[in-house]
Amino acid sequence: MLLHYCDLAWRNIRQTPFISVLMIIAIGIGIGVTMTTLSVYHMKSADPIPNKSAQLHALQLQIMDDGQTWRTPDNLPQQVTYKDAMYLLENSPLEKTVAMFKSGAAIHLDKPDSVPFIKDVRVTSRDFFDMFDMSFLYGNVWNEAQSEQAAPVVVISEVLSQKLFGRKNALGESVYLGDRRYEVVGITKKWRPAVKFYDVNNSAFDPAEEVFIPLSHAKAYQVSSWGNTNGWKNEEINSREQFLNSETVWLQLWVELNSASEKAQYGQFLLDYMREQQELGRFNRKELAYNLQPVTQWLKYNHVVSADNKILVGLSFMFLAVCIANILGMLLAKFLKRAPDAGVRRALGASKRQIFYQHLVEVAILGLLGSVVGVVLAQLGLAGIRESKSGYELIATMDWQMLLISPLISILACLIAGLFPAWVVCKTSPATHLKTQ
Length: 437
Known about the structure:
With 437 residues, the chain is of the alpha+beta class. It is built from 15 helices and 11 strands. Strands 3-4-9-6-8-7 form a 6-stranded mixed β-barrel. Helix 2 (17-45) packs antiparallel against helix 11 (307-337), helix 2 (17-45) packs across helix 13 (352-388) and helix 2 packs antiparallel against helix 14.
């Protein structure tokens, strides 16, 4: 019976091509706008590392004196100081702890034809690659001795290796970051998280770094931060040493916690450390506080998906509702024009339910065709966003989930629009139309 309804629906669509095309375009425009905003919202709010997001935790410490506030909901800074990061990194009871910050440099080779270009650099401890599921194509991360000695070693991505050396395997080659020569010890596979969740302070949608150097370079070579650097108290800072020992927050610290008991033990370790610091004149608060937030909660805490994104999704569905209202009027006109055909079918034995279902099948087919137009328009809209907004290359895309949802929304929207016109037609008395035949 469904195939028979589909055949009748297709015949009716072909008999009224102009109004059918208008409805397909109308629903296509509505779906295109809706899927553009919904796809961006979906990619922004998606879990960027689903296999480990529950284990990875961003660390916050309440280092400020009583009466001092921060711009976060709980008044805790999003980043940590250098001295806190180094202590917690070197004395951590956990298997994996990462301290890091964003820097940058002009990258070039020791060749006359090598043109320097600016590249972001992630200055980090060794566990970064394992903790965030980065794989090596060639080589590996620098060893402990190289880290302690601040050896001039670097890990780069396969994309950057291809760009610099014309090949992916550039182990042992030399590359310059500014005026300092570094030896390439590792080549990572392409790693492009849609959201740079490990450092949301410096635009969560910037591309992930492709250059990595040891954290010890921050002190040994005075590598400066290119990210957010914030202070909360007046301090005299006239040297690098004073800056590193200051209360300025500029590093990110992440830990991997694999169980509730491990999280509780690490929390006690943090409280013990803060009590020790209180005796030295720091953490001057009545109540010590810290946060260990898993990835998804960390993104919500930092408002990675802003209220504007939610408003845009709501407005796009309102626009779709306007399209549905227009389609409803066109469907009503189209179905009433064919009411005599429905009257003949009723006289020949078709029930009201069969007439109702047949018209809904026709509406569903219109919705399916409209979704095809909508997906095309959405792809054009997403391409425009990628071109106009930096860092949206992986955000302004439509994944397989959105591709599946698109026809469902389109068909559902058309079915809603078609309920009233189909009901009006099936309620019409067949005798009324038979007299006109």
